[in-house]
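Limitations

Structures in this collection are predictions, not experimental determinations, and the ligand pose is part of the prediction. Treat each record accordingly. The example that follows, with magnesium ion as the small molecule, is included so readers can see exactly what is and is not provided: the inputs are given verbatim, and the output is the predicted complex.
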Amino acid sequence: MSEQLLTLDLLADWLRRYAAIVDEHKTYLTELDSAIGDADHGANMARGTAAVLTHVDDATTIDALLKKAGMTLVSTVGGTSGPLYGTLLMKMGMATGSVVELSAEDFGKALRAGLEGLVARGKTELGDKTMVDALAPALDAYDAALADGSDLHDAVAAAAQAAAAGRDATTPMVAKKGRASYLGERSAGHQDPGATSSTYLFDALADVIGA
Amino acid sequence: MSEQLLTLDLLADWLRRYAAIVDEHKTYLTELDSAIGDADHGANMARGTAAVLTHVDDATTIDALLKKAGMTLVSTVGGTSGPLYGTLLMKMGMATGSVVELSAEDFGKALRAGLEGLVARGKTELGDKTMVDALAPALDAYDAALADGSDLHDAVAAAAQAAAAGRDATTPMVAKKGRASYLGERSAGHQDPGATSSTYLFDALADVIGA
Amino acid sequence: MKKLINSPDDVIADALKGVEASDDNVRVDHANRVIYRATPKEAGKVAIISGGGSGHEPMHGGFVGIGMLDAACAGQVFTSPTPDQMLEATTTVDTGAGVLHIVKNYTGDIMNFEMAAEMAADAGIPVETVVVADDVAVQDSLYTAGRRGVGTTVLLEKIVGAAAEEGQDLGAVKVLAQKVADNGRSMGMALTSCTVPSAGKPTFDLPEDQMEIGIGIHGEPGRHREPIGDAKSIAKQLVDPILQDLDFTGSPVIAMLNGMGGTPLIELYLMYGEVVALLKEAGVEISRNLVGNYITSLDMAGCSLTLVKADEEMIRLWDAPVKTAGLRWGL
Amino acid sequence: MKKLINSPDDVIADALKGVEASDDNVRVDHANRVIYRATPKEAGKVAIISGGGSGHEPMHGGFVGIGMLDAACAGQVFTSPTPDQMLEATTTVDTGAGVLHIVKNYTGDIMNFEMAAEMAADAGIPVETVVVADDVAVQDSLYTAGRRGVGTTVLLEKIVGAAAEEGQDLGAVKVLAQKVADNGRSMGMALTSCTVPSAGKPTFDLPEDQMEIGIGIHGEPGRHREPIGDAKSIAKQLVDPILQDLDFTGSPVIAMLNGMGGTPLIELYLMYGEVVALLKEAGVEISRNLVGNYITSLDMAGCSLTLVKADEEMIRLWDAPVKTAGLRWGL
Ligand SMILES: Nc1ncnc2c1ncn2[C@@H]1O[C@H](COP(=O)(O)OP(=O)(O)O)[C@@H](O)[C@H]1O
Ligand SMILES: Nc1ncnc2c1ncn2[C@@H]1O[C@H](COP(=O)(O)OP(=O)(O)O)[C@@H](O)[C@H]1O
Ligand SMILES: [Mg+2]
Ligand SMILES: [Mg+2]
Ligand SMILES: [Mg+2]
Ligand SMILES: [Mg+2]
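Predicted complex:
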């Protein structure tokens, strides 16, 4: 069992770093969404994460931090990614309880609860060419690393790597969910924007824990 | 006094030739009109002269030929050039009387009557950057050539040359009439479309009499 | 050229078929290219016709119907209709009370309507003419063909149409029409040129970062071009020359923020917000407004602002019922 | 990017100012970005709200008023509004008789409206939802997010709005809404892409000689692209897949030939003429029609056709008075 803990401060930093990465890549995200969607994913995510930033200092517990972040995404992003990312974070917050630090394992359980909420909301399966195709393998890799005795540092690195691989794997897929599905076969050959912004979640975490 | 006569057939050929030249240059006329007008002069003149063609065979006298041609232009062209070219030909027809051939002098008088009608309708002066800037010098050159003892052939050649010079002289002018006048100083540097299509009248005449 | 057409030569004929199929308020004389009211006006009332080049839809055909025009003559794209069309329309709509011709101030329109009016007079039909010349972008009227007739035409057709509908006589209708014309001012701008179907390419080239200020409705280039500004500064370039030309304070004002054909409504609303803010600052009070595509220039992106300085009577006539494809209320 | 805006971030806020200034039928809640009727509906009548991403004007805000919507929630450009907005609108418009949510079938819209409906139910407000999914361009509904909601939304808002206005209860209004949704089909095409303000460039590239068939209203690329055909052949590409999907003979039909925002009205009339000719051939009888910009996609050039198979009752409700910026008759 890993000794390292994820503190309130670290998770606040995670959200801050995520916002920074999204902002940095918003043009790129919108370009990806132009090819198989409606050219707003970058603007959507940048608007939402910027709104999250205005609240991260207020939280005194991890559940409050994550729930508030999730609700903020829901009420500022709209579109598809608002309810989905919002649900992910809200369900994570509901799973942690009112704490100020989390074990690597408990953080993994919270992520899993978040993903389940997201999948229930989005009615997605793996292989539909959505953010789930990055999130699910990332969580699996994270859990597997911890089970293999890796520390948080390595587990997050493994998750980030798996997320990136999952994201890359969306490129040849034919979309079955979301706006890209209207394109049918023409959706193949393009990387999914949501899978891309999901990968940034793990990049951000790796950055803040120094993985 | 010139010996040559302008016959009904020759004048019918003149209108046919004019239609052909206009049709050949309609894109060019529209381009000229794009720069300082509304991009329709070529289409307007091509439509009108094509309609005139459907009647040239019917006429048994010169006045009927010209009046019908003028009325056809009025009722098929519209815009600025319809009433103006229409008036030119109608007034020419009214001036010739019910004949089947005209002396060079009488043709000149008819042209003069036509121009006067056009100027009255358009309320233009020389130098306003309009078709009058090609027509008026052409008529003056024609009359002067005949007065100097030239034959029809040379008078028409002189008219065509003067029309071309008049047309070229419109380029530096600032328009004071028609759509180009809205541009103010920006109208300078562009050749007037109407002066250009007017010049074709004399080119066509030169062609059919072999000048 | 990207257009939903069959061929440049058939645009008007084909579009008139669609007008006939879609608009219950009108019937179409395809041979003469005249759009008439489906049900003619009662005898004894002044009839009103207008017309002009096509490419400005809904003007004029979309304004034929109860409370507005009795007929509209459709010319070729950007080309005045011919005297034959106007004479035919004038003869057909006259109920004995005479006919008002609403003419926009362009050399071609003036001459063609003039010839038609001469022929109608010959045929014994009393005709009066009002010429709209409201475009403040045309400055030196002495050295030009005079100001172009643009947006005021739409508001005039509505107001004067109501007066004719309620039975005012030709003299009164003409005086009212002149009053509206005298009290209307417009100013327009473009982000892109339009493309005339028969020309097949844009009338003027406008670089990606430039706009044209002071355009008319025929793709004529404007007075000058400059880098595209924000909506606030563009609004100022529309409002200022209009207010410099006529004092709009102290009277009710009818405003129209008009799209040129290729401008989305969201941008027109946005521009209207900016225009209203500037007018409020200047003490101008807007009583009635239109925001949308009313007098367009094919696919041009851009907009124009029209203000008409009204009085209580003009506002009353504005509010009167109207039933046309382009403007409808109270019916 | 050529747009009449101040900045991409301010488009919605600024446009709502213009809506407020121009449209007497509505009042605007700027904080929540909800457009409400200026005068709320009488107590005891079912209220109707809709909403969606912006960029489709006049839909939905332009359909708020007597005989149509009670409120419209404005999202960011092409982005569903948030549950907060819909909950706020639902709570505000409920007169005690419950609220109908009109939702277009997009993943985002479905989820956000779903969350709002859950919260409204929690607050004790009866909410029913109708989902419009009428775009026949989306073929394999099993392998996609299902058909997109497009043009039928406009006709549904009118018909159902009339039913609510005359006092039908929530159950009846919901049944009627579902019936309209089930009987509506649409198909669209584009000559150009639109440009989302925050993206700053066209969503897709379309060569000068190509068109995109089967587009939606968000600049999503369509099903395929091909060389631009003439209006007749384009009309066929709109009509055929609709008629293949549903039998429109034997009933009155309401048709809408809709412009995508950058298409001039003259082209829409022309296309409508071609569409009507094809429908006549196929034995389809059009009872009512709309030709114009009703559900747009920013500055996209192109058009869509919507047919709703109606019955006498739906036609009666269609003809009932309506007073909104986007649709108006009888008032
Ligand atoms: N049903 C779904 N479940 C999970 N993710 C989805 C679903 N539908 C779409 N997505 C994700 O949402 C992304 C698009 O988000 P965004 O562009 O913000 O929303 P919208 O499609 O409403 O414009 C897609 O790239 C995809 O990853
Ligand atoms: N008042 C006028 N008198 C004589 N010619 C004129 C006058 N106004 C314009 N023109 C001529 O008409 C030409 C334009 O014709 P055309 O493009 O067919 O008509 P419009 O300007 O109505 O589109 C100009 O190039 C000019 O030569
Ligand atoms: Mg998107
Ligand atoms: Mg011209
Ligand atoms: Mg013209
Ligand atoms: Mg979106």
